[in-house]
Write a structure and sequence with these properties.
CATH architecture of the largest domain: Orthogonal Bundle
CATH superfamily of the largest domain: RNA polymerase sigma factor, region 2, helix turn helix motif
Strand content: under 5%
Helix content: 55-70%
Radius of gyration: 23 Å
Number of helices: 7
Low-confidence stretches: 1-18
Mean pLDDT: 79
Largest sheet: none
CATH class of the largest domain: Mainly Alpha
Order of helices and strands: HHHHHHH
Length: about 200
């Protein structure tokens, strides 16, 4: 008899069909992880001196994220949740490597994590403000900004594409950037609070 219903105690066990823990939306996990894996690795690198160690911690973190994804509240931001798990993996790795005196103290790790969380909140807010400021630009300026920063092509290519001289493109980009900085400053006074 084939019973597909979940049984008490099955939490975290793999579903035979796709290898996912019971109750995990595999597609949602893959999308979120693919979108944010570089930020998670960068976060780990902030605490670890050696790339090989960071890669090992990242792999461990990836496995834990997958195993615990059914506990993730989809109404919340994925990155802080993933970073909290990554931080726990850094601490665990640090304990395993406690003999190595090149590691940061537990107190300093906690302080760095607190500062990073505060910075994440401010940077997320700053990014939302910047998006709003970009939306307020004239269509022509938004298109130039996208062409200039959205490609790896040289300024000469951008100038040809928009029908301006290279000097005119640089001048316009400088003006647009100043306008964006002013807009962001108006919406984020000292201290990062919104007006």
């Amino acid at each position: 008899m084939n019973d597909d219903s979940a049984h008490p105690g099955d939490e975290g066990q793999a579903d035979a069909a796709d290898g996912a823990p019971v109750g995990v939306d595999a597609d949602r996990f893959v999308v979120l992880f693919a979108q944010h894996h570089t930020r998670i690795l960068a976060y780990i690198l902030a605490f670890v001196h050696h790339r090989a160690d960071a890669d090992e911690i990242f792999q461990e973190t990836s496995v834990v994220l997958w195993r615990k994804f059914d506990e993730f509240d989809t109404q919340r931001d994925f990155v802080p949740w993933a970073k909290a798990i990554a931080f726990n993996q850094v601490r665990s790795f640090r304990r395993r490597k406690a003999r190595d005196r090149h590691w940061l103290s537990e107190a300093l790790l906690d302080e760095l994590a607190t500062v990073e969380r505060e910075m994440h909140d401010e940077l997320s807010h700053r990014q939302r403000v910047m998006v709003g400021c970009v939306e307020k630009l004239r269509q022509q300026d938004r298109e130039l900004l996208e062409t200039y920063y959205g490609t790896t092509n040289p300024a000469t290519w951008v100038a040809e594409r928009v029908g301006r001289s290279v000097h005119a493109v640089y001048k316009a980009i400088k003006r647009i950037r100043r306008s964006l900085f002013d807009c962001i400053d108006r919406h984020m006074p000292a201290g990062g609070e919104t007006t």
